[in-house]
Amino acid sequence: MSISILGIESSCDETAASVCRDGVILSNIIASQQVHSRYGGVVPELASRAHLQNILPVLDQALLKADVSLTDINAVAFTQAPGLIGSLLVGAQVAKSLAFSMNIPLIAVHHMQAHVLANLIGGNENPESVPAFPFLCLTVSGGHTQIVVCNSPSQMKVIGETTDDAAGEAFDKSAKILGLPYPGGPLIDQYASSGDPLRFKFPEPQIPGLNFSFSGLKTAILYFIQNEKAKTPYFIENNLPDICASIQGRIVSILLNKLKKAATQTGIKDICLAGGVAANKRLRKSFEETGKSLGWKTFIPKMEYCTDNAAMISVTGYYKYLDQEFSPLSVTVTARASW
Q: Is residue 222 pLDDT above 80, yes or no?
């Protein structure tokens, strides 16, 4: 019997729904929220209101594209943590309502676990396209930076994480220092494509073990820009590509140096990227080049599965369904949660 899972993602400012059947993605619909750009960041109250407007149309589109009806769905999976409470509540209440009304299982999903398992999308169609267990995953997003050992879809262990800012946050805050609009991370990637990453030198934090730190780098960038602008008022405008390339190059080197250390310590050769920052072109290219030089088998989800999406929620829900990991209707959402 086929297993069809409806996945709902609403942890931040993307309203998304997806249907997967036996682990194969049939639809992945995402509604982005443009309202936050004028405020320089996500406004939680506005995000919640936009989710309320978008959630039902997005669900309808996901079911229509997958060519399934609600009666074909075997379980509803939703993002339970972490994220913005108001945003999470919208997705959770819709998921609970559907599960209750159709008398089918409810599956709570941890957002970061889902990012890791995005690397398994496409595995049922082509097993060679996905990593073998155990694998390492560098998960980088606006709110998290982690190195995870994944022994199975349900058994994961975080062996390294940021002690302060996340990599995505470092990109966005650096962009703000440069006067770039929100979201600034993709703009740094764009300008960096024509810049020299060796032009300006930024420090690499000396953090023991496999943990990361980006707050010191952010401060160094701030002081560097302030000092250079004091000498040359149009310093940013005259050097923007090189500045962006140098910032991006340092963030990428910090990430990959820790990942290389983790691979050496664990002996694992199947290595993955995941999370929104995995869409960064320099990171993707450097990751693949590093893997080739060190004999890794490298894996990166398709671009649409790197940023927040519901396909990763539905496929995680599928593996949880196989393990009968269901949640009661009383389950609550959480802004921060370990896994």
A: yes
